[in-house]
Amino acid sequence: MQKRFVKALLVCIALCSILAVSYAKLPPAAKILPPGFILTSEKDIAGTTMIITARKDNDNFPKHFTDLGISLEISWTMQPMADQVMKIMAGQPEAPAGMGPGPLIREEPCGKQNFQGGFYICRKIITRSEDPGVSSTLETWRVSWTGKAEGGLVNVNINNYYGSKGSALGLIQSIIPKLSGSK
């Protein structure tokens, strides 16, 4: 009796693994990444989560600041209850304005709304120069988009984007159609 149970359990685990792998996932990074982005990592975690990270220098970045580059993360997570999770996430309020990781950085909410079949959350990052002779500030954007994909959720996160909020959203908008099964 115990041997039958063990065999049935092993068959069940094998079938669950096959089903997990059969869900739509992200295409290879080479098909998703926008021009100029350099792949830093591509991970498939047990067939239930995929994460692609990439980096690119900002264009026309001010000289008095250090360009950390635009970081891009695209992920897919298996989530059979994607509709319910999206509803909960979309209903949560934006975080209030606050100080960043250091005294020279402040961040402000700059919008949360429906976008391209999902929703985005935007944060404006305002950095003062470390140079006492420079009185200017730098504004960059952190934008995160969440949407549904077959069998799960897809996230596109951009951080340290120098330019307009509209161009940051345009970058996300250029990635969304490349995601397999995104709706």
Q: Key features?
A:
4 helices; alpha+beta; single chain; 8-stranded antiparallel beta sheet; Protein Transport Mog1p, Chain A; 183 residues; 25% helix
Offer a concise description of the structure:
With 183 residues, this protein is α+β, with helices and mostly antiparallel strands.
Give an account of the 3D structure.
There is one protein chain. The protein is 25% helix and 39% strand. It is globular and about 55 Å long. It is of the alpha+beta class and 183 residues long. It has helices at residues 2-22, 29-32, 82-91, 165-175; strands at residues 38-45, 49-56, 70-78, 98-99, 105-115, 118-128, 137-149, 152-161. The protein contains four helices and eight strands, in the order H-H-E-E-E-H-E-E-E-E-E-H. Mean pLDDT is 84; it is low at 8-24. Strand 1 (38-45) and strand 2 (49-56) form a beta hairpin. The longest helix has 21 residues, at 2-22. The protein has an eight-stranded antiparallel β-sheet. The chain has one domain (24-178): Protein Transport Mog1p, Chain A (3-Layer(aba) Sandwich).
Number of helices: 4
Total separate domains: 1
What are the segments in which pLDDT stays under 50 over at least 5 consecutive residues?
A: 8-24
CATH class: Alpha Beta
Q: What is the CATH T-level topology?
A: Protein Transport Mog1p, Chain A
Mean of all residue-level pLDDT scores: 84
CATH architecture: 3-Layer(aba) Sandwich
Radius of gyration: 20 Å
Helix-strand topology string = HHEEEHEEEEEH
* Overall outline: globular
Strand % is 35-45%
Please report the total strand number as a whole number: 8
- For the largest beta sheet, what order do the strands appear in spatially? 1-2-3-8-7-6-5-4
What is the distance, rounded to the nearest whole angstrom, between the alpha carbons of the first and last residues?
Answer: 46 Å
Main structural class: alpha+beta
The helical percent reads 25-40%
Biggest sheet architecture:
8 strands, antiparallel
